[in-house]
């Protein structure tokens, strides 16, 4: 069966995509951006952490699990499940990881420093989205009594009094990672930490739910603040990872633009209210089941969106909105307020025939032009999946270089596609 996707050369990591409709049923996996945070939180306890609905197939998750093992944790993966234990090892506070780094090393540093008083981790990696600073992570650890410094390719922290001290953390922007790191660091700090202007989004609520099950005392006060009463120790936990809203949105958009018909199971309705409102207003036809969404193909209309904090449209979603807009007759406009100028992918889509230009911070797409397959490059994860979706609508073959980027955030893509055609 032609899955529409073939990894033609594993060594050069090129993915070949051809035109096809997506028809059938697909199950949304556990969320990358939740699973990674929960893995960092597993460092806060010496007791077992068991995660269900766990996306073992994701490249970033595999990197993270290996990092945990390097630190002294034992990892037992099974089907959509992982168990992390400490087995009497002394956990190392120096993550001497020689491979590709991930953004989550910042949270690993927060977890090591709050539990062991110190940590040393590779500088953060992750998608290159223009300037991606980590000054807020440094600021919050310093506010909690740590000294933080860089040493070559490593970021190091040490609690000056041996244990982090709770404090007020005022975030100037609703940073996802800085909110998560404050929660992680605050959970074992001495006293009460208040995070003002936090980013409250589904992945963060999932992290808080798990930590509270472990014995943490964290309360969310709307978008105003999150209060964390530090505790002496945290225990083991069994927890289920939330569904990946990015993956769910990908299949919904894929169904429309390939004129397909997909039932998306495990659809996180609550987490996608705003993006789905925009898409429904732009021609997406949906039918809601109990925990699934059926999306039928049809004519997409142009979109006008800006990205921002939850419940708004996540910056990660905008490359998919661009592909949606490219299929519609008319002009679509995108502005990314989270990562201004995150439009590198548009240049790659232009190679396939997408008619677009950038005007200051605005991306304008003149939709309705047919796309043609050619050789393009996945500049980051979401750029990669956007090219992949565009490839499903293009005449001829699309060859995506650096396709490993897609595997960072989409597991079992080939297998899922087999069920969709
Ligand atoms: C693993 C994970 O969950 N990654 C997500 C997380 O990234 P991440 O947590 O890195 O993103 P942030 O929410 O922190 O970034 C928001 C904005 O704050 C700025 N900033 C951030 C930290 C800092 O120390 N200093 C600073 O200036 C960033 O440059 C950006 O402009 O949220 C982003 C959206 O918000 C998503 O695109 C990423 O997929
Ligand atoms: C930007 C992303 O991830 P990371 O923060 O891990 O680079 C993403 O998931 O799109």
TrEMBL record:
Its EC number is 2.5.1.7. Transmembrane segments: none annotated. It catalyses: phosphoenolpyruvate + UDP-N-acetyl-alpha-D-glucosamine = UDP-N-acetyl-3-O-(1-carboxyvinyl)-alpha-D-glucosamine + phosphate. Residues 20-417 form the Enolpyruvate transferase domain. It is found in: Cytoplasm. It comes from the Bacteria. It is an enzyme of class 2 (transferase). Pathway: Cell wall biogenesis; peptidoglycan biosynthesis. Keywords: Cell cycle, Cell division, Cell shape, Cell wall biogenesis/degradation, Cytoplasm, Peptidoglycan synthesis, Transferase. InterPro entries: Enolpyruvate_Tfrase_dom, Enolpyruvate_Tfrase_sf, MurA_subfamily, RNA3'P_cycl/enolpyr_Trfase_a/b, UDP_GlcNAc_COvinyl_MurA. Belongs to the EPSP synthase family. MurA subfamily. This is UDP-N-acetylglucosamine 1-carboxyvinyltransferase. It comes from Compostibacter hankyongensis.
